[in-house]
Amino acid sequence: MPQVKIRPQELSDAERFFEIFTQMDFEFIEVPVETLEDEKRFLSLNEVKRKTNFEHNYSILFDGKLVGACGIRIDQHRPWVGEIGYLVDKDYYGKGIATEAVKQLEKIGFGELKLQRIAILMDIRNLASEQVARKCGYEKEGVAKKIHRIGKEYYDCFVYAKTR
User: Fold this and answer.
1) Where are the domains of the chain?
2) What is the CATH topology of the domain spanning 4-163?
């Protein structure tokens, strides 16, 4: 049976992440990475982000192969609240990988990080991401208008959340 594991991102993940990013159609998110050096720079900041409790980023492994990324960003005004984000290589869609990654992130968020609330925001057009939130037991709270930006355009997002 295929196994999904998450682990802290490493600088050595840069080439595989860049490969995933260059093959994906980013209809629902914006990734500020245009070069391999951009990705290395992003990954090099992870330790500081983790130590300052700003962001906790993980690599998603499927049977040992890096197939995506996920993380929890901490609300700096409400440090008991986190927001989960995730992306999976398009070649691995439909295998339950994001769902399992969210379950593992949630354990870290409510356990290690002692969060009281975890939210998942997704573009209202992203039905697959909405299904991940539902499968993981998150409750739909509503729509946040124009909260999400891709390029110069603003989009509405569904807000799903779970509390401890």
Assistant:
1) 4-163
2) Aminopeptidase (3.40.630)
Q: Residue 5 is inside which H or E element, if any?
A: strand 4-8
The answer to whether 24 and 89 have CB atoms below 8 angstroms apart is yes
Structure tokens at 69: 């990324």
HEC profile for 118-164? EEEEEECCCHHHHHHHHHCCCEEEEEEEEEEEECCEEEEEEEEEEEC
Give the tens place of pLDDT for each residue, 60-117. Answer: 999 999 999 999 999 999 999 999 999 999 899 999 999 999 999 999 999 999 999 9
Two structure tokens written together for 86: 């995730």
Which tokens go with 113?
């990080």
Burial of residue 10 (number of CB atoms within 10 Å: 0-12, 13-18, 19+): exposed
